[in-house]
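TRAP transporter 4TM/12TM fusion protein
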Amino acid sequence: MDEKQQKMINELEGSDRELSGIWAIAVISVAVFMSLFHLYVAGFGLPGLGSKTFLIFHLTLALVLIFMIFPIKNRLGQTRIPIYDIILSAFALYVGMFIIQRQDASSIMSGEPTGYEIFIGLALIVLVLEATRRVVGYPLVIIALVFVAYFFLGEFMPGQFYHSRGDFERFIYEITYRNNGIFGTPIYASAQFVFIFILFGALLESTGAGKMFIDLALRAFGRYKGGPAKASVVASGMMGSISGSSTANAVTTGTFTIPLMKKVGFKPHVSGGVEVAASSSGQFLPPIMGAAAFIMVELTSIPYYEIIQSAIIPAILCYVGILFMVHFEASKNGIKGMDKSELASGRKLLMQQGYLLIPIFVLLYFLVVERVSVNNSAFYSITILLVIALFAHRFKESMARALVFAAILLGIAFVFKDIAELLNIGLYKLNDLFGTSFFSSETIRWKDPIAYMVLLGIIVALVFALGQKKLKVDAAPVRYGMREMLSGFEVAARNSLSIIVACATAGILIGVITTSGLSTKFTRIVVGFSSDLASMVPAFMTTDNTELYFALVLTVFACLLLGLGLPTTATYVVLAAIVAPVLTDYGVPVLVAHLFVLYYGVLADDTPPINLPAYATAGIAKAGPVRTGVQGFKYDSAALLLPFVFTMNNTILLITDASWHDVVLAIVTATIGMVAFASFIQNWLLTKYHWIERIIAVVVALMFIQDNGLTDLFAVILFAFLIGFQYFKSKNQQNVETAQAS
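Tokens:
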């Protein structure tokens, strides 16, 4: 990611503070340390330190970095860190260290914190909310304050919202010193899982992988109707599946794809909207799925590999829907693809940078086949990524010198385990010398797979270098070195800040929800309302799922309302705590309920007027941000009915005992339904719809929701009839146009 792109992301997220000199060095140092710290923990853990300490340090580093990077308000044009933000950074560090030191104190363990401990807890809450305001914006802070107000005013609330638990000291204690507040599930997932994958995505991007994904997608789809837009969808999906940030993804890929879309005839706001939809929907696509997949692991206790296994088919279907939306848009406006001469050779592209796909395959191997922990899988993938990237250019430049360095590195990797044992013995003896117990027998750790990752990385880099020489292919455009690696570490820390503080603030919400019992009350309200609505439906129109349908519709509105203006991570946490239990009460499987709220939470993030990816792509496309955001919502809405489909038919989530025939049938019918719905939105299939045809298209899409063989068969026949009618209609129009032209 170049400086211009990073500057755009920083400004969108609320920071136009451009530091230089010692100030810039200070920020880079903290950011790189933060990334290296998380990389070490992912690979080796923290001997002698508990997980709670890690969470506190994780949040503390984020707070320190936020007050160094983000100004108190935007557009101040600051070129140095003002004294008040230096004080805030130092105070945040002090608060974090105090809580680490006092977490096992008798006053905390007994639930009777001292007055000073209450003050520090209150200070932490204020620091988190202020950091959230600077990075994420006001909406999440306002929602948090509303929940806090509810906690203290519960005794004045009517009906089921009444509670009498609004004690100030209890609130501070629960939110800051217990595990169901700030240091609850969201921040745990952020520290343990999310950060390391953001680091993986940032390092991969620093090697130039984003441009490679775009070039490969253009090669595959560029020459077809609306090719650059289709390539944008595919490239953004590939990058979005690992980047963890829809805004960063939109800027990275949009810089290249939006001008190409405009060049072939897409309107500026449409080009930006396509990129918004494609970038945001990457949060559905494994292996990372934004931050939600890892938080889902903690909230549902479902193994990670089962979650990504269930998420893969709906995610692909979502992108199929966006691709058809693009296809219909191109057909409506007569937009063709790119000339084949403008496209790079696929074989040369793969030989030039195809090695960057290897770390992704390694990641999937460890996650899915070996079922290694998420942290270790990411750590091994980063290890092989760095080795390949560092040696790829060097083998081609000077084979002999690179082989010497490779042999030295390989030797160190294979003997370091023995070296670590000797170093640990020496460090352990220092305890007696200085009268401390700081060092343990496992202070320095090593794992055997690291050496094999180094070996595999060197082999891959060597093979590609030899292949490039033989086929006379240029080396990758990015010559990877220390500067690029440090840049990746810095970008990872910056990109993680919005997620970390969003998770911390979401922890406040969950603390209030848990302590006040709000989630069960909300469930009773929705269930009661759904039952009342179902009773109003005529008997001949009701099914066994009528009440569930109403609950799902109400859930959609709740997701869109609660998620408006929030980052996806915070949205999912809130919805998972409040809304998902409603669906599980109706017998919906836990994983299905969580995927349902995730999909509509992401759609809420794409809803104007608060839509950061739209502001990013609008700037690149030179279009209005609201108009671009509307287009982004439009293209995302191709998958609007998809959560209803997998809720009523769990087969496509691969969580049933259905045969492969049933799975294929479910995928086919879901695809037809999405195509029908996309054509309804675009008012086009093979030619423009008559209003009656458009109604038929949406009826077909709705019929596929119900898991019923008879309705599916009738919908297929109806859609086949619609296609046939559209075919003859378009032929007649072509004949008329030909006759008029002659």
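Residues 3-186 form one domain.
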